[in-house]
Amino acid sequence: MIHLGCIADDFTGATDLANNLVRAGMRVVQTIGVPSGPLAEAADAVVVALKSRTIAPEAAVEQSLAACRWLRAQGASQIYFKVCSTFDSTAEGNIGPVTEALMDELLAPFCVVTPAFPENGRTVFKGHLFVGDLLLSDSPMRLHPLTPMTDANLVRVLQAQLGVQRGRKVGLIERGTVAAGASAIRERIEVLKAQGTTLAIADAVDNADLWHLAEALKGALLMTAGSGLAIGLPAQFGIEPATEAARLPAPTGAQAIVSGSCSSATQAQVAAFVRAGGEAFEVAPLRIASGVDVVSEALAWALPRLARGPVLVYATAAPEAVRQVQQQLGVERAGAIVEDTLGRIARAFVECGVAQLVVAGGETSGACVQALGITQMRIGPQIDPGVPWCHAVSPVSGSRGLHLALKSGNFGAVDFFSRAFETLRR
Ligand code: ADP
User: What distance in Å separates the CA atoms of residue 68 and residue 81, rounded to the nearest whole number?
Assistant: First the structure.
């Protein structure tokens, strides 16, 4: 039976949360969507990864409730709704509607909400979210294409997302109270409840604040948070940090990297890998579009090299080159054909014996995981902040499974690709 059940509103956010729980000592499995059957392996926590951040609120609620019911059936006594640390959401939701639906489902009398993660520069003070030194509403998030965040006052943002007919009110647990410790936080919650307030944004500006909140939330049915609050939760279940929690099966097979991210960090990582003498094959989107069988080409190139060390296949390109491709093919088509090709290359590699695979790019990771038919992964040791190794069983990999590291675009140091395999070897 698991202790903690987590519902994440996007894929890389799920991995980020899982990574924090593993570092704090929990054995964690991440599932892609809601599983159809019971959990087959031992774990302290399960993170169900949804893609519900920007879908219609009704669909986000339905999927989150399905995840909640499945997690409860696996024994979860506490539900953690994981949202973005920049509180990414639209005017309609989905943080408010999903939180309320989960409160109703669990009969939770109160829900603490905090996206704070001071280690990553996300702090909340007097209910206002800061991204580094900037208020959320002054940060680049104000220009986000899908979820522009123009108000840093989270009490106001969350209140506006709640259903008027339900009549719930959002309050604030201020820093002074949080810093005073778990008893002060619990007392504040009781005061808020007596005033008819059933949700509260909690301030947190350092790790100690998150620890106090986690202690105060011991036994709470529900919390809504970024991945930061997770650092203090395992201790509330009597679990301590242990390398054992991150243990994965021993690595086997050949090593490969598939990169479809064009973010600046990934560009530097590809360049560093090539500069250090790594074997690399460039996938050109226009050749795919003109009908060339790039998957077979990549495979023919890679096969004689796989025995000698990691090979890199990349579509990663500088902004100007990407723009030219997008002008010719359209933004969506360019993205889709590259993702499809890289997914098929990843699958072909695994069919040919690759069992340690690094994928760069959020969407690219989604395409590769789908092409490999992966539905759940055990979370292992961290390579760089937010990026752990995972172990998954895929219909393609056979019973020995494969090791996977899914890196979202801007994560990882410049030598990420080579260091990733060293981390796994250790
Ligand atoms: P990130 O995490 O860096 O945002 P993603 O994989 O999420 O990376 O997104 C990168 C997108 O760019 C994908 O849709 C991918 O297919 C596309 N792409 C990759 N290389 C190229 C290229 N050379 N030209 C055009 N689009 C590309």
Answer: 9
